[in-house]
Amino acid sequence: MFDILMYLFENYIHSEAEIFTEENELTDELVRAGFNKPEIYKALDWLEQLADLQQSDIYPYLNAQPQHAMRIYTDSECQMLSVECRGFLMFIEQIGVINTVTREMVIDRLCALDKPFISLEDLKWVVLMVLFNVPGSEQAYAQMEDLIFDEPADELH
From the CB of residue 121, how many other CB atoms can be counted at a distance below 10 Å? Predict the structure, then answer.
């Protein structure tokens, strides 16, 4: 399912091409790209649930002043998200890329991936997908892109 999400994100996020509004057309394109239908339906459901998060009760808080709150992870979240992933979430919250609301949206979408373990790279892409779908997060999205795509500077020894 994650490969399908990445395919859609990479093919439509920075292109002038419009994503199909007709689910059957999109499904046909994804089948032609080599994906199987059950995974396609899971990915489309994942995207629909991401869009639904914005329509929920959290909408008024999406662009509110960020408030920092310590996050206590459940046992299942700790098994899925390594210390490195949890630390990265804390880091991007501290530098203002995400706030407590978007952090919870990211964790919700990570848990919905049906993966027993989330890599740091997968986490970064999910953060980008969430930020792309949150109105008013353009600056945070750009910061996250910089964190993903900029080469790290040489380390001092």
Answer: 10
* pTM of full prediction above 0.85: no
pLDDT of residue 63: 53
Contact predicate 62/101, CB 8 Å: yes
User: CA dist 10 to 2, 33, 115, 144, Å?
Assistant: 12, 13, 20, 15
DSSP state of 20: P
The angle, 0 to 180 degrees and rounded to 10, between the axes of the packed helices 83-94 and 100-111 is 150
Q: Under a CB-based contact definition with an 8 Å cutoff, are residues 19 and 8 in contact?
A: yes
Digit-coded pLDDT (tens) for 67-94: 667 788 999 999 999 999 999 999 999 9
**Per-residue tokens: 9:** 């994100």
